[in-house]
Amino acid sequence: MHMKPMTVEPSFRESVDLMFARAARHLNLTPGLEEKIRVCNSTYTVRFGVRLRGEIKTFTGYRSVHSEHMEPVKGGIRFATSVNQDEVEALAALMTYKCALVEAPFGGSKGGLCIDPREWDEHELEQITRRFAYELIKRDLIHPAQNVPAPDMGTGEREMAWIADQYARMNTTDINAKACVTGKPPHAGGIRGRVEATGRGVQFGLREFFRHPGDVARANLSGTLDGKRIVVQGLGNVGYHAAKFLSEEDGARIIAVAERDGVVVNDKGLDIEALKQHLAANRGSLRGFAGGTYHEDGAAALELACDILIPAAMEGVIHTANAARIRAPLILEAANGPITFGADEILRRKGVVIIPDLFANAGGVTVSYFEWVKNLSHIRFGRMQRRAEEARSRLLVEELERLSADKNLGWTLAADFKQNFLEGSDELALVRSGLDDTMRTAYQSMREVWNHRPGVEDLRVAAYIVAVERVAATYRSKGL
Ligand code: GLU
To answer: Rounded to 10 degrees, what is the CA torsion of 178, 180, 183, 188?
Structure first.
C-alpha cells in the first residue's frame, strides 16, 4: 500500500477555496464580492434519534448551502461514514460553480448523513432516511422552490423516492411537491436517463474534448477516443456508466478498474458489464473475476501507464504523495474533488491536462435540472410533439417515394435510414440530446478561456473563471 501524504495538505474545503482563489486573480471582483461568493452561506447540522433494533440510535446529518444567488439551491445527499462538515461545505461550493458552468439555474448546496448504508436493512434505511428528510423539510432545506437534493455517494433512486414521499406527506396541498428532490425513479416522478446521466456526461464531455485536436495535443495525445487506454477508479454509478459507454460505444479500452478491495487489469480491455455483474454477485469484491488479473493494491492503479485516468470515487485520492507518480497525460475528474490542490500543482507542472470535476461530472445535475422542470410543468418531455414530428417525417418520406415512382427514378430509401428518420424523439432521446448540448456548450466556454485568455494555464482555472464570472454577474444584477 502507498502511504498517505506526509505533508499536511489543506482540507477539501480549503482546497476548493484555493482553486477559487487562483481563478479570482484573473477576475475584476471587488474584495467584498469575492468573499461573498467564496464563503458558504450556512451549514445546518442535525442529530436525530431513530428507534432501531430495540434501542435509540443517534445519527448526524448536514445540509450546507453555499450560495443562494439563484434559488432553489441544488446538490446531492451523501450517505457515508466519512461525511463531515468540511466535506459537505466543499461539495456545496463545487455545486455552485458546477451549476453556473453548465447553466443550470441553481445555487449550490450539499447534504450528508454519517452512516454506513450497508449496515442497515432496507426498512431501517427507509426509517432513517425519512427521519433525516423530516428534519430538513421542516426547515425548508428540502423544498421545490428553495432546496432540491439529489442522489450522491451511497444514495440513489430508492432514497429519493422516500424523500419525495416524505415531503408530499408533510405538504399535502403542494402541487409541485414532486419537484422537491431529483433522481427519483421514473414511476415516482423521475425522468428517463437520470441514473446514467453523470456517466453519459463524462462520455459527451470527452467526445467534445476530442473534437478539438489542438486541445488533445496539449495532453500529448492525438486522434479520437477509439483505442484509447483508460483506467477507471471506482465502479459505482458514475464510473460504471462512463466505463460502459466509452468502451461499448466509443471504442475505448478500459484497461484497469480499481475498487474497494483492489484492481483488475486487462490490457485488451475489460468487459464492464461482466465486471459489474461479478461485483454484484460477490458483495463488491473484484477477487475471482475471470476477465482480468487481480492485484490487491488498488491505489497503485492510479499510477498505471494509460492515456486517460478517470477517478470516479472519492475526493482526495490523488494527493501530494502520489501525484508525481501519475503517468496518465489526461485526467478526467468524474468524482468531486479527486485531486487535491497540492496534487493539482504537481500535475500541472508535469503538463498533465485535467478535465475538472466542475465540468466532467456535471451531467448529473444537468439531467436533475430537466427532471425538476418536468415536475414543475407536470408533463413528460416529448408528449405533445413526438407523434407530430413522426407525421411530418412520414409525409416527407412518402412524397420522396411518390416522386421516385412517378419519375421512374428507382430510388429506394435505406430501411434503417427510414426507421431512424421516422422515429420521433421520446423522453430518453430528448434528455440525452439536452445533455449533449449542455456538455458541448460548457466545454466550449471553458476552452475559449483556456486557449485565449492570457495567463490561464489550465482547464480548471478556466472552468472557475467562467463559473465565477456568471455568479458575480447574478450578484451584480441584484445590486450587490
Ligand atoms: N450529487 C450530484 C453531484 O455531485 C448530483 C447533484 C444533483 O443532481 O443535484 O453533482
So the answer is: -20
Does 231 lie in the same domain as 90? no
Which residues are catalytically annotated? 110
Residue 135: all three cell numbers together:
428534519
- Residue whose CA lies nearest to ligand 1 atom number 9: 75
**Which residue, of 317, 351, 385, is where some domain finishes?**
351
> Could you give the CA distance from residue 70 to residue 103 in angstroms, rounded to a whole number?
11
Q: Look at phi and psi of residue 47 and say left if phi exceeds 0, alpha if psi is from -120 to 50, else beta.
A: beta
CATH number, domain with residue 276: 3.40.50.720
336 lines ligand 1 (CB under 6 A): yes
Ligand 1: atom nearest CA of 148 is 9
Q: Of ligand 1's atoms, which has the minimum distance to the CA of residue 75?
A: 9
pTM of the model: 0.96
Mutate to test the pocket of ligand 1, among 95, 153, 438 (most ligand atoms within 8 A of CB): 95
Q: Is the pLDDT of residue 1 over 50?
A: no
Q: Please tell me whether residues 165 and 228 are part of one structural domain.
A: no
96 and 24 inside one domain: yes
The pLDDT tens digits of the residues spanning 423-480 come to 999 999 999 999 999 999 999 999 999 999 999 999 999 999 999 999 999 999 987 7
